[in-house]
């Protein structure tokens, strides 16, 4: 029962958090809350997510170390499972680090803008438009990075991608052939 509760909590938490952030944002738009509450809520949620991910990696690392200590008594099958766990842990670590590297500049830019502009501190943010665009491009590149990482690290994923793209190419060439046949048929009717 405890694992079902943990699973349900993990499944519902992102939705509840995003609903809370949307509520805070809309209350700010309607003038019921100052914008600083929106900024604080978003910053707190990002920090909380980072702490949860760090705790999860620490727990995974501890679990892998414990299973490595029992490795002498393991069968070949459980050793293979442990290798898969290690590969998966490395993959998720790479994906998470890629996410952090691509999103941290955006968050730093937001903090600088908030502290200098909204809080009225004694600084003037001099941020060029090209810097903002570069940071946004890096942020969007994060979405593109995951499939690339999965393709390099997971052979099964790479195989499925190749299979799907070849099917799309085959469909595209079949569709193009049918369109050419229709066009050629129309040209023949027009000419005769």
Shape field: extended
H and E string: HHHHH
Percent helix range: over 70%
- Compute the separation of the termini in Å: 76 Å
Helices and strands: which structural class? mainly alpha
Largest sheet: none
How many β-strand runs? 0
The domain tally reads 3
Q: Which residues form runs of ≥5 with pLDDT under 50? A: 184-192
Beta fraction of the residues?
under 5%
Q: Averaging pLDDT over every residue, what do you get? A: 75
List the total number of helices: 5
Measured on Cα atoms, how large is the radius of gyration? 26 Å
Describe this structure in words.
Helix 2 packs antiparallel against helix 3. The protein has 192 residues and is mainly alpha-helical. It has three domains: 1-30; 34-153, no CATH class; 156-191. It contains five helices and no strands. The longest helix is centred in the middle third of the chain and has 43 residues, at 76-118.
């Amino acid at each position: 029962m405890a694992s079902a509760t943990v699973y349900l909590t993990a499944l519902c938490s992102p939705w509840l958090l995003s609903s809370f952030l949307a509520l805070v944002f809309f209350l700010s738009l309607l003038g019921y809350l100052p914008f600083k509450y929106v900024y604080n809520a978003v910053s707190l949620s990002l920090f909380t997510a980072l702490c949860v991910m760090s705790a999860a990696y620490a727990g995974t690392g501890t679990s892998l170390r414990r299973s490595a200590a029992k490795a002498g008594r393991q069968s070949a099958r459980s050793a293979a499972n442990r290798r898969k766990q290690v590969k998966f842990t490395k993959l998720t670590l790479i994906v998470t680090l890629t996410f952090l590297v691509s999103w941290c500049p955006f968050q730093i830019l937001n903090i600088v803008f908030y502290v200098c502009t909204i809080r009225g501190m004694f600084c003037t943010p001099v941020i060029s438009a090209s810097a903002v665009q570069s940071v946004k491009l890096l942020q969007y590149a994060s979405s593109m990075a995951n499939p690339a990482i999965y393709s390099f690290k997971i052979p099964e994923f790479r195989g499925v991608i190749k299979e799907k793209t070849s099917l799309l190419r085959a469909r595209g060439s079949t569709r193009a052939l049918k369109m050419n046949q229709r066009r050629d048929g129309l040209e023949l009717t027009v000419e005769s």
